[in-house]
C-alpha cells in the first residue's frame, strides 16, 4: 500500500506522526517514507512493504492529513503510476523533465577528440539546443575496440559545455567509481554544466551499479531498457534505482535484440512509449540510433533514423537520445549510425514538426472527449 499525504503535510506535521502511531499496530510491515519533489508539488508518500492485506484502506483514508491510500499490485512500487498517481517529474539545471516535457540529447556516442566535441557543442548552441549526449566511458563488444577517453577528457569536456551553454550532458557510467570521477571533474571545473548518468543496455541488470546510482542524489539517471529483457524486467531494474532514494529517472527505449528486426540492428520498441507512461510516472526517452545502426534511406529519401524518431515522438516520447558526428566515417565508435553534423538543423526541424503534430493530435482527442 502507498499512502499519499495531503500537500501541506510534512514529516514534521502532527498528521504524519499520527499516521506513524497508527501503523505501529502492524509491526511486521516495513515503512518507507519517500518525499518526491516534483515540478508542481512536493509529495509525501508512505510505503507499506510486506503483507498489508490486514491494513484497512478505508481506515487509513479516514486519518487526518491522508489524501488517499493505494493498493499496490506491481513490484515497481516507487516508479509505478498504479492507475491513479500523477506524473511528478523533476527539475535539473533549470530544465523540467516530466511526461509533458520534451528534450533532445544530441552528440557523440563516444568522445574521441577535443575538436569533435567542440564542433558538436557549437552546432547545438547555434541551433538552440542546450542538452547533449557525450560518452567518456564506452563498453564495447571487443576488448580491442575504442573504449572512450575516460576520466581524462572530463575536465575539458565540461569546460567546453560551459563555453557553449550546454546545461546537461547524458553520460554513461559503467562502474560506481565513474560517478566519483564525474563529480570530481565537475568540482574541478566549477560545475559549468550538469550530468545525467546513463545506465546502458549492457548494464541493465547490473544491480550493484543500479543501487550505486540510486544512492547518490547529485545526478538524475537515464536508464536504458536491456536489449534482451522484457519490459517488466527493465521496469523492475529501474525500481532498483528508485528504491535506493533517487527517483529522478528517465526511462529510455533503445530497441530489443531479435533477428525479427533485420536488417535493422535491433527491433524498434517505440510502441512501448505510451505503455511505459501508463505504467510509470517516469519521462520516456527514445534512442533511434542504436536500433537502426546505419544511415540508410527509405525510397522517399528520408533516413530510417528519421522515420523511427517520428514513431517515438508521435507516440509521446519526452526525449530523444541521438548520435551525431562531424565526420561519421572517421568516428571511433558506432560511426555507421551517427548522423552527419551538417544535418542537425534538418533533423531538429523534422523532429519539432512531428512534436507539434503530436500536441495537436493530443488536443484533438481531448477536445473530442474520447
Automatic annotation (TrEMBL):
Pfam families: DAHP_snth_FXD (PF18152), DAHP_synth_1 (PF00793). Residues 100-356 form the DAHP synthetase I/KDSA domain. InterPro entries: Aldolase_TIM, Class-I_DAHP_synthase, DAHP1/KDSA, DAHP_snth_FXD. The keyword Cytoplasm does not apply. Gene3D superfamilies: Aldolase class I (3.20.20.70), Phospho-2-dehydro-3-deoxyheptonate aldolase, domain 1 (3.30.70.1140). Keywords: Transferase. One of its GO terms (molecular function) is transferase activity. The keyword Transferase applies. It comes from the Bacteria. Residues 1-73 form the DAHP synthase ferredoxin-like domain. This is 3-deoxy-7-phosphoheptulonate synthase. It comes from Thermodesulfobacterium commune DSM 2178.
Amino acid at each position: 500500500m502507498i499512502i499519499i499525504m495531503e500537500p501541506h503535510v510534512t514529516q514534521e506535521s502532527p498528521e504524519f506522526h499520527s499516521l506513524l502511531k497508527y501503523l505501529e499496530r502492524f509491526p511486521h510491515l516495513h515503512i518507507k517514507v519517500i518525499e518526491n519533489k516534483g515540478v508542481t508539488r512536493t509529495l509525501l508518500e508512505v510505503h507499506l512493504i510486506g503483507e498489508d492485506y490486514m491494513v484497512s484502506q478505508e481506515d487509513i483514508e479516514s486519518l487526518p492529513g491522508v489524501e488517499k491510500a493505494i493498493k499496490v499490485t506491481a513490484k515497481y512500487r516507487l516508479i509505478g503510476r498504479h492507475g491513479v498517481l500523477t506524473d511528478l517529474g523533476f527539475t535539473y539545471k533549470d530544465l523540467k523533465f516530466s511526461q509533458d516535457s520534451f528534450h533532445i540529447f544530441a552528440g557523440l556516442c563516444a568522445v574521441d577528440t577535443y575538436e569533435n566535441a567542440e564542433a558538436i557543442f557549437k552546432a547545438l548552441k547555434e541551433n538552440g539546443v542546450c542538452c547533449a549526449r557525450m560518452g567518456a566511458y564506452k563498453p564495447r563488444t571487443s576488448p580491442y575496440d575504442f573504449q572512450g577517453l575516460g576520466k581524462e577528457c572530463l575536465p575539458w569536456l565540461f569546460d567546453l559545455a560551459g563555453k557553449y551553454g550546454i546545461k546537461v550532458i547524458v553520460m554513461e557510467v559503467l562502474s560506481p567509481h565513474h560517478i566519483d570521477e564525474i563529480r570530481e571533474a565537475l568540482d574541478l571545473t566549477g560545475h559549468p554544466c550538469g550530468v545525467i548518468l546513463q545506465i546502458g543496455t549492457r548494464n541493465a541488470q547490473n544491480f550493484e551499479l543500479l543501487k550505486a546510482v540510486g544512492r547518490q542524489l547529485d545526478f538524475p539517471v537515464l536508464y536504458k531498457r536491456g536489449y534482451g529483457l522484457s519490459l517488466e524486467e527493465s521496469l523492475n531494474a529501474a525500481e532498483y534505482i528508485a528504491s535506493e532514494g533517487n527517483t529522478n529517472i528517465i526511462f529510455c527505449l533503445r530497441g530489443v535484440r531479435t533477428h525479427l528486426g533485420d536488417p535493422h540492428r535491433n527491433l524498434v520498441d517505440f510502441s512501448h512509449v505510451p505503455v511505459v507512461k501508463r505504467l510509470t510516472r517516469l519521462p520516456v526517452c527514445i534512442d533511434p540510433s542504436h536500433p537502426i545502426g546505419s544511415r540508410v534511406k527509405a525510397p522517399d529519401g528520408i533516413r530510417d533514423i528519421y522515420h523511427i524518431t517520428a514513431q517515438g515522438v508521435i507516440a509521446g516520447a519526452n526525449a530523444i537520445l541521438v548520435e551525431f558526428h562531424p565526420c561519421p566515417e572517421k568516428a571511433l565508435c558506432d560511426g555507421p549510425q551517427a548522423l552527419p553534423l551538417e544535418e542537425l538543423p534538418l533533423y531538429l526541424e523534422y523532429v519539432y514538426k512531428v512534436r507539434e503534430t503530436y500536441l495537436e493530435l493530443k488536443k484533438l482527442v481531448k477536445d473530442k472527449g474520447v
